[in-house]
Amino acid sequence: xxxxxxxxxxxxTIHTIMSExxxxxxxxxxxxxxxxxxxxxxxxxxxxxxxxxxxxxxxISGGITHASFGGIGIAWFMGINPVAGAAIFSILSAIxxxxxxxxxxxxxxxxxxxxxxxxMALGIIFIFITPGYAPNLMSYLFGSILTVGTTDLWLMTAxxxxxxxxxxGFYHLILFIAFDEAYARAHKxxxxxxxxxxxxxxxLTIVLxxxxxxxxxxxxxxxxxxSTANLFTHNFRNIILLSILIGIVxxxxxxxxxxxxxxxxxxxxxxxxxxxxxxxxxxxxxxxKAMIRKQLNR
Amino acid sequence: MAGIFEMHxxxxxxxxxxxxxxxxxxxxxxxxxxxxxxxxxxxxxxxKLILGLIxxxxxxxxxxxxxxRNLIGYLPQVSQTDKSFPITVLEVVLSxxxxxxxxxxxxxxxDFHKAxxxxxxxxxxxxxxxxxxxxxxxxxxxxxxxxxxxxxxRLLILDEPNTFVDNRFEHDLYELLRELxxxxxxxxxxxxxxxxxSYVKTIACVNRNxxxxxxxxxxxxxxxxxxxxxxxxxxxxxxHTVLGEHNHTHHHE
Lengths: 298, 253
Hints:
Helix content of chain A: over 70%
Strand content of chain B: 15-25%
CATH superfamily of the largest domain in chain B: P-loop containing nucleotide triphosphate hydrolases
Distance between the termini of chain A: 63 Å
CATH class of chain A: Mainly Alpha
Largest interface: A-B, 28 and 29 residues
Number of domains of chain B: 2
CATH class of the largest domain in chain B: Alpha Beta
Order of helices and strands of chain B: EEEHEEHHHEHEHEEH
Mean pLDDT of chain A: 87
Number of helices of chain A: 15
Shape of chain A: globular
CATH topology of the largest domain in chain B: Rossmann fold
Radius of gyration of chain B: 18 Å
Strand order of the largest sheet of chain B: 5-6-7-3-8-9
CATH topology of chain A: ABC transporter involved in vitamin B12 uptake, BtuC
CATH architecture of chain A: Orthogonal Bundle
Number of helices of chain B: 7
Oligomer: heterodimer
CATH architecture of the largest domain in chain B: 3-Layer(aba) Sandwich
Low-confidence stretches of chain B: 235-253
Radius of gyration of chain A: 20 Å
Number of strands of chain A: 0
Largest sheet of chain B: 6 strands, mixed
Mean pLDDT of chain B: 83
Structural class of chain A: mainly alpha
Number of domains of chain A: 1
Distance between the termini of chain B: 20 Å
Largest sheet of chain A: none
CATH superfamily of chain A: ABC transporter involved in vitamin B12 uptake, BtuC
């Protein structure tokens, strides 16, 4: 398991670290890497997730995520970088889903369901027929933010910069196409091109964040912060900004819990998101009640 | 009067199913055509053909000014749009100007000015920052209408604009359309034949075939002759809804 070094570290020093100032943690490279990964994951998932949630593509994204596991397995078998395998596999399946849903008569959700399990099956088959034992399997499924390396960070930085530039430069066009595709097509906007581009970016975002939260949980990073933000704002740009903020708060708290209690980071981060969502929902209900009371007293 | 487009013997449908066959239809400047017909008769398919969203299986559609096709103002059916999409009213209206932008770039100050002007014309200037999910049915229709006319198109197509709106808005809408018709041709799909006949100039009956009726007065027997099985409902309060037998002769195309 890739998490062994950390687990040993955590087990031997857990009491001293617990009493340690959190700031001292910043002296460890693995910890600053993890913080950076949390920040970058919040930015990339904040942007891509807002697109997914707005266009109601959560199920499609789930399919892409799980299909990418096939890529990891095949890459592992062939001895190449699993992230590269996952990237190729997920982009191909993303484009495939988009193609199937726009052309043929195959029911889209059934097609996604097939792809979803096919990817997982392929991944498991190839990992098990690869000689030697299967390291990292757990970290791909549940994430291990504490083992994120420099290469991962560079890739995530590149993706974050690209997403920011792309969504800033084409903000209006992306909204135009995502909101009313028929209207955009009637006005000869490059609908197909942008749909393929955006779904590929979603796929890349998913793959590069597998390190942080894992295949099983990455979909939550793309939906819970957005749903929380959506409680307070209905403006696309504000949802992006607010979900990045919620992403940072949730992932950093999840990271700390993951570190101190030695639990896979994916689970702790998602759990933090759910708590934030519950708090936000409670706050929203209280605010509404207060508003009603104020109006009644007037 | 100058033409906008002509359809020559167009057949269209989905997959192997043909919905419209051998349609001949033309829209000229400042026309106001009500498109009526039974459900599944091909009204929406006709709209999609005009907009270029589907291609004819047979025949062709000729626009006098081909570049104009992507400027057609279009009001989709309410059910076709996603009411919870996080987009503001101003953003929706601005998107009506998108196809004028070279390379679909960002909007200029002039665009914002135009969009606000149209919102004011619709009487919903105060809603520009709201997201569409917060609007009532009538307000939403106003926003979509604003988007459809913000680029001052020569042709405006409305697909069932009177569903999910209250009577007052419906009346306002038709008055507004009458005003807009001084500047642009309008093609309006509607199931509510009784009401539209008092506003449109001519009627197109669509039920697999298309029969163009060059008058806004139509009788049940004519509808039967056009193979257009719909019921004429009389709306008592609306003036000029002349239904029933009359003596004019109309040539059937």
